[in-house]
Amino acid sequence: MKTSIENQPRSVSQTEQYLDKCAWQYKLKRIDRVAARPAAWSHQGTAFHSAAEALERSDRTMTEEEAVQLFSDQYSALVNKSMSQEPNLDWWMTANQKPAGQDIEDRYTLGQQQVRDYVKWSKENQPSFVVVKNDKGEEKMGLELYFKVELGGVAVRGYIDQLPLEPDGSTRVRDLKTGSTKSKFQLETYKVATEKQWGLKVNKGDWYLGKTGKLSPVKGVDLSKVTEEEVAAKYVEMDQGVKAGNYLANPSSWNCNFCDVSHACSFSRAR
Question: What digits encode the pLDDT tens for the residues 8-27?
Fold first, then answer.
């Protein structure tokens, strides 16, 4: 039986889309199911994550070239699938008004370099990751870990990219980024979810930035004072808004230019 959007578990991306970007965009994408315009940047990010995860799961025995090949194969497969669904490249989203064909090629090369940089960074820094048990008692390394917790009476789920171990025995939450957008709320959610689901102590979080090949910030974001209640409040606000059917449009040059359903939006400034 299909669950209605009003009763589905929430996520970081849903909540930020509804509260911080545009609730009308949320409605168009998740309720009206408007077909989204494809973007090569999303495929770049997905393929990069796959290569980074495979490297770590191999205990870094995977070579740089093997990791790059994994990225290349997955990126190409994802792009080809999107092109079969939307062959008109003029309809694709790109940054800086770059032609989509050029953007696809550039991100193929950029993604390969980002994977090379990650392999070098990981083998140099040798991060170690926690091991947790799932509901079946199976041990899982702290990589792409699925969580589902209840915050303020709202079911919240997602995947955490990495849970590195800290020298003091605590755990750090880490998100891998191929672009420039960073979300502290995401790290805050991961901290609360990690502590609630696995009983691990989390004081810090950070981002690995593919653009620089480094952590940001190196010393981490202080999450020690983040409470479950303050994180839950945002999910409750979003959940109540969706259940009440409140979808306020928030048109702006930034929101609309990077909205993949702006073509179906009567409020859009990107038309």
Answer: 999 999 999 999 999 999 99
Other Cβ atoms less than 10 A from the Cβ of 89: the count is 16
Phi first, then psi: what are they for 259, rounded to 5°? -95, 125
Residues 6+ apart with CB under 8 A from 204: 166, 170, 172, 173, 219, 220, 221, 222, 223, 224
Q: Is the pTM of this model over 0.85?
A: yes
Planar angle of CA 180, 184, 185, nearest 5 degrees: 125
Query: Which residue do the tokens 């965009």 mark?
Result: 25
Q: Rg for the chain (alpha carbons), in Å?
A: 19
pLDDT of residue 18: 97
Side-chain-side CA neighbours of 74 within 13 Å: the count stands at 21
Contacts of 121 (CB under 8 A, 6+ apart): 208, 213, 214
